[in-house]
Design brief:
It is a single chain. By secondary structure, the chain is α+β, with helices and mostly antiparallel strands. 29% of the residues lie in helices and 25% in strands. The chain is built from 3 helices and 9 strands. It has a 4-stranded antiparallel β-sheet, with no helix packed on it. It has a 3-stranded antiparallel β-sheet with strand order 1-2-5, with no helix packed on it. Strand 3 and strand 4 form a beta hairpin. The N and C termini lie far apart (117 Å). About 11% of the residues have low confidence.
């Protein structure tokens, strides 16, 4: 009887050890599967989204239909841009945008916040009053159809903001170059070539305050 009890006890212990080993084996396999799946997901799980965040770009940034314009006299300039998909990419589109404008001191003068819209042309400035003869930097952030952001920046520079010489914006301004008689410094009449060179300089740069 005692021998039978010892044998039964030994068999029970062996069963426990067998069950324990089998459980450990199953758990190990399950953990290996989970880690393998995670590694595959990181490497290959969402290649389109990775391409969008790294390759989608914003191009054609313009202010008043011009790249980095000088001497604009518009109180509410309009901004435009284009979203470019990577080579061979399809189904890319804008779902939201944000524009931030800062002045030459780096102070923020306008922030649209995130605007849910696919419009990317003729976005009219609606911030603080634009100052004359000031360079402004503007940055646009765009979110695509998957919520991935992409950004780019540009700038524009204002002129005197009013062409009427009787207004205060022109106080103290004196024209340099292009005198009325259009003569050289030596006093001799300017040739057609010299006049062409003078005309090639933007008129909005022909003032000194």
């Amino acid at each position: 009887m005692g021998q039978y009890f010892v044998t039964a006890t030994s068999n029970l212990e062996n069963m426990k050890v067998h069950v324990g080993c089998r459980t450990f084996y199953l758990v190990s396999i399950l953990m290996m599967m989970v880690f393998s799946f995670a590694a595959v997901s990181i490497a290959f799980g969402n290649p389109i989204q990775q391409n969008q965040s790294s390759q989608t770009t914003l191009t054609g940034l313009q202010t008043e239909y011009t790249d980095t314009p000088l001497g604009i006299d518009v109180e509410h300039p309009r901004f435009s841009w284009q979203m470019s998909a990577p080579d061979g990419g399809h189904g890319y589109f804008q779902t939201a945008y944000q524009i931030v404008v800062t002045d030459s001191d780096g102070d923020e003068v306008w922030d649209t916040g995130r605007v849910e819209s696919d419009i990317s042309v003729h976005i009219e400035y609606a911030g603080q009053a634009i100052k004359p003869t000031t360079r402004y930097k503007w940055e646009v952030i765009v979110w695509d159809q998957d919520g991935n952001p992409v950004s780019n920046s540009s700038w524009f520079e204002t002129g005197l903001m009013n062409s009427n010489p009787d207004l205060s914006a022109w106080d103290g301004a004196t024209w340099i170059g292009g005198a009325e008689k259009d003569v050289l410094e030596s006093g001799t009449p300017a040739s057609e070539g010299e006049r062409a060179k003078q005309r090639s300089v933007p008129r909005d740069r022909f003032f000194r305050l």
